[in-house]
């Protein structure tokens, strides 16, 4: 095996579902806000929004509230995508004898999460899965001192075969044990 460095990219928040929800929340919130505003004015601001049968109090006011709420949530989702929160990589470097976990966080003093461990501290790779309505399949790296560092992103929809394959490949590369649930 001539491979000395393995790097696994973690996409974080940049996945299709977040782009979908950012778009839905933004357009939906804008539509609700315009409908509420139109009911306040008593005339349609845009021709495609019919608000003649909507009284401002209480329906227009509630629609405006929901519109503002959806727009704020949409802005939050778009900023999360822009900042690539949760994105980063896991790097395993045999040459340097180090393991590096890097993730992007929210802006502030903890924007860059960069953790390094000596490869000698890695005791094993652990796979954990829970089936059901909300299945969870997570890959952990066990570090000396009974610490477990998650290597997969939260909510990552991976198949059981994919996570087992990645775990076996990584355990073999690091020359450590592989723990599978029974």
TrEMBL record:
Q: Name the InterPro entries on file.
A: PSI_Ycf4_assembly
What membrane topology term does the record carry? Multi-pass membrane protein
Cellular component aspect of the GO annotation: photosystem I; plastid thylakoid membrane
Q: Which family does it belong to?
A: Belongs to the Ycf4 family.
* Known function: Seems to be required for the assembly of the photosystem I complex.
Species? Elliptochloris antarctica
Any GO BP: photosynthesis
Location of the protein in the cell: Plastid thylakoid membrane
Superkingdom is Eukaryota
Tell me where the transmembrane regions lie. Answer: 20-41, 61-85
Keywords annotated in UniProt: Chloroplast, Membrane, Photosynthesis, Plastid, Thylakoid, Transmembrane, Transmembrane helix
Question: Can you name this protein?
Answer: Photosystem I assembly protein Ycf4
What Pfam families does the database record attribute to this sequence? Answer: Ycf4
